[in-house]
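Side project, low priority. Logging it here so it doesn't get lost.
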Amino acid sequence: MTVHVLNEQDTVLNKFIRQIRDKNIQQDSMRFRRNLERIGEIMAYEVSKTLNYEEHIVETPLGEASVREIGDDLVVATILRAGLPFHQGFLNYYDDAGNAFISAYRKSKKDGSFTVKVEYISCGMLEGKTLLLVDPMLATGSSMVLAWEALCERGGMPACTHLAAVIASEQGVDYVKQHMPHDTTELWVAAVDQELTSRSYIVPGIGDAGDLAYGEKI
């Protein structure tokens, strides 16, 4: 499996990573959502360099021009609720892609551990398509893998899968590498952090992306 860590290069992406990490800036929820969206746009552009392309002829007012466009049948999927603005960033560029949504949550146990439960899936056919499964945080990696398995169970096996996260932990990256198909999966992350807390929050991370984007859970 190929792992792409985008902040290893000096690009404008790093400006938005800094802002979503900054505890003062991130209190502006509208700006936080917009920054997730902008990071999604940048990552969508980077992913686009690895897709398959087809030649198209377009008629202009003065003649014809050859243009190579994406030939893959794309589906952009996300995990509710934190994934919505990140998903929108990808959709801004892949505006004709299909969409899928999945609801997953952590069910805590008395000993402080948790299991991930899936409650809701909205997904069409994935068989033979290119799936982009995007979620801002890749902590333990279990939610991402479980979501992928649930989507495939509902929609069939995609031809290839691109997983995308804004902030990942080293543990999450390792888990995904161990539990996803190696030959048909690529992982894209904006930044990788080393630590996880006992509650599986990434350190230094950003905090709870869903709460920062949409307010604290009731």
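Brief comment: The chain has a mean pLDDT of 93.
Revisit when time allows.
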